[in-house]
Write a structure and sequence with these properties.
single chain; 336 residues; mainly alpha; two-stranded antiparallel ribbon; 8 strands; acyltransferase; S-acyltransferase; Palmitoyltrfase_DHHC; protein-cysteine S-palmitoyltransferase activity; EC 2.3.1.225
Length: 336
């Protein structure tokens, strides 16, 4: 599927840049007002494509969230367990496939062969799971792809419409083979853009609602299956729910990057239920501090490193649950 995504990007780039707006921008005829407009279109198009590819590869290459080795849940509280209706909310959960405890909100990925923190779903388009660490990148990928498709369709619309207007009135001259090839490429690209934009819009609306509710796709279906009418226990309000995923640094909201401060907050997901693991201090978390909730600073943080970037956004992973630069664990999966 990675090749399919790159193929679609290559198709739009070839049509928009090489066939249509590139030649228009390089047209050096005097008093050519179209050249300036073509340069503007090319500039906006390249920004959107760069952000789309950056977000996409950040999502593909970032580890979605590995359960820290040695993580153990807190002592069992029978009364508290009775009010937790869905499987994701239970505090003491044992993964028989990993033969280890798994935190609340984590799920086992059967093809990846491991549990993923705050697992949302397995996405075939990124050939990996979407979880705590790369959910922001996934949402940005959806948004930038939608924006790029809409912009490209609008940019090609004038060429598309003018060609069919000439065909309809029958007064056009005979087209050369090069012009016919260009219009065939414009025709295919235009409809690919429209189809992708229409399909992405539904996903964007769904994940926006999930993000503002602090709920994953798996948890949404679990809650429906349990027919629970209780308030969602992780919902802390739209602002805090949003900043749990995107962080508190506004400048980074639009980039597939996490600050070191935000990475510790995301890692704190692994102890929402009060559990612990051996490397907590090394990961910058205070083992005896209260568990942080959506939008709050991570435990043990002084809150003064919000601008420090954890990594480039392409290869942030977890080693033993820590916030380090590393390779993501490969594989494709479905939640089990």
């Amino acid at each position: 599927m990675v090749l399919v995504v790159l193929g679609v990007v290559a198709l739009t780039y070839y049509t928009t840049v090489v066939l249509v707006y590139g030649p228009a921008a390089l047209d050096d005829r005097d008093n050519n007002n179209n050249a300036a407009g073509a340069w503007v279109v090319l500039a906006i198009y390249h920004v959107l494509i760069v952000m789309t590819l950056w977000s996409y590869f950040a999502c593909v290459l970032t580890d979605p969230g590995r359960v820290p080795p040695g993580w153990a849940p807190p002592p069992e509280d029978e009364e508290d367990e009775r009010v937790r209706t869905s499987n994701s909310e239970k505090r003491r959960r044992f993964c028989r496939k990993c033969t280890a405890w798994k935190p609340e909100r984590s799920h086992h990925c059967s093809v990846c062969g491991r549990c993923v923190l705050k697992m949302d779903h397995h996405c075939v388009w990124v050939a990996s799971c979407v979880g705590a660490y790369n959910y922001k990148h996934f949402i940005l990928f959806l948004l930038y792809t939608f924006a790029a498709c809409v912009f490209d369709a609008v940019a090609l619309a004038s060429t598309f419409v003018s060609y069919w207007a000439d065909v309809h009135d029958g007064s056009h001259r005979e087209k050369t083979d090069e012009e016919k090839m260009t219009m065939a490429a414009v025709f295919v690209t235009f409809f690919v853009d429209v189809a992708f934009a229409a399909s992405l819009l539904g996903f964007i609306v769904m994940h926006a609602n999930l993000n503002f509710s602090n709920m994953t796709t798996i948890e949404m279906y679990e809650k429906k299956k349990a027919r629970s009418t209780l308030p969602w226990r992780y919902d802390r309000g739209k602002r805090k729910n949003f900043t749990e995923v995107f962080g508190t640094t506004i400048a980074l909201w639009f980039l597939p990057l996490h600050s070191a401060h935000q990475m510790r907050r995301l890692l704190d997901v692994s102890r929402l239920s009060g559990g612990s693991y051996p490397r907590m201090v090394e990961d910058g978390l205070d083992p005896i501090a209260p568990v942080s909730v959506a939008g709050d600073p991570p435990r043990g943080s002084r809150g003064d490193d919000g601008e420090e970037l954890a990594a480039c956004g392409l290869c942030v992973g977890s080693r033993g649950g820590g916030v380090v630069v590393g390779k993501k664990s490969g594989g494709r999966s479905r939640d089990a």
